[in-house]
Amino acid sequence: MSQTKTIEKKQTLIALAVFGVALLLAIVNLQSNDSKLVQQTPPSPLASIGATQIHELHIATPNEEKPIVIVKDMSNNHWNITSPIQALADSTLIDEVIKNLVSLRFDSKPAAEHSNSWETLGVLEEQTKAITLINTKKQSKTIHIGTRDYIRLDNSDNVYRVSNLDKESIIDNVHGWRNRQVLKIPADDIRVVALKEQTKHAELTHTKTKDDKPQWTLTQGAQFVGALDSSIGPSLVRVLSDLRATSIVDGITHRRAGMMPPKVVVTVTLADKSSEKLWIGNQTGNNTYIGHPDNKHIWTIPTATIQSISGGILAWRDKSIVPFSSTEINQIKVKRDKELLVFERQDSSWKINKPKGYVLNDKYDIERMTGVLGSIKINRFVATNKKNLRKRGLNPPKIHITAINSENKSVTLSLGNTTANEVYAISSNRPELFLIPSYITGMFDKPWSELAKKQ
Predict the structure, then answer these.
(1) Domain 326-454 has what CATH class?
(2) pTM of the full predicted structure?
(3) Equal fold, 181-316 vs 326-454
(4) Closest CA to 304 of 320, 280, 286, 319
(5) CATH class of 181-316
(6) What beta strand segments (E) does 322-398 contain?
(7) CA-CA 20 to 30 A from 437: which of 78, 125, 155, 217?
(8) Is residue 343 predicted with pLDDT exceeding 60?
(9) Residues 373-386 pLDDT 10s
């Protein structure tokens, strides 16, 4: 009896082992099939043409009568627009577009195999951009990019969904393909940046400290700049090493753009003693016209991004207002019309000294105030003196804010009229009229009921 049970047990174990092996083989086979399915995902139909050998790009869109034709000069790898206009093209943009097109990832099966589905998927002829790539052997491939994430193959009814197409980079308008690179300079090669503004001249020179750290020194124009903004050197390098315009402006003269003479002339001297010049012209909306002596084009660039040069010599001046940190502020006085509010720090908390009989609704309101006062910077200078204050709402000011530290040193910031996102201001420790971010007005002009309540 015992022997029978032993045999049965062995048979059970053998059966389980066989089942386990079969299951393992099934899993391995399933994984192998999955792997084959992944490998069968079709590559981009443009990949076979060879990205490095592509020398011509055609873009036909429903909105343009003629296709955009861009051709690569294989001798220098620069791209040129040859139709419908002739202009230097943005080589970096085109290389990125081609790289994206030849690496498109397709779904393994077509989303549609008949033209009846084209309208639904947004790939009708009038809905698509036809992109043709031609290589040096004159081999070409074309795909039709639809309004959604689908593309149609040329000479085929098949439509595929793609997952990594950068549609925004494929621009409809020919002018969007034009080269907008104004300056391209190795950042480490910049040695001197000079600004000439009417009769004023200032120079900033790049040197090294004893421990080999970069250092920017004002070598000319101290009488115009005053105290130097310590962040201006790195800011100039960022702007000038890779300066790209947002647009090229056709049909405007240098006189109309404010470049005869320029408002500001920027000269960049490099390590090899060569130099580049820029002309800064008028402001137009939120942009500024800029030009280059060796280029007929006039460009526009957002004024905010080039403030370190478009703002002229005053843009290099130190822009700090309160000379002590937020943690050193022990008292804040806010005068609004006939109302005087006084907040005082006591140990780690704040209390209201004036008016009496009130407590703060939220202690973090005052922490935010001190944080702003200790860090706020001037956006830009309007004038080097405090004249014409009435039309800027500063005679008298709408709000006075005084920050006082533990040594009883104080700075008063006075606020006037606001613009879209800035407010005119003056301070007791600076001679200029300037603009600062307008959010400070809302912070210090809150209704009293939002700041405090009766005890």
Answers:
(1) mainly beta
(2) 0.71
(3) yes
(4) 286
(5) mainly beta
(6) 329-336, 339-346, 349-354, 358-360, 380-383
(7) 217
(8) yes
(9) 999 999 989 988 88
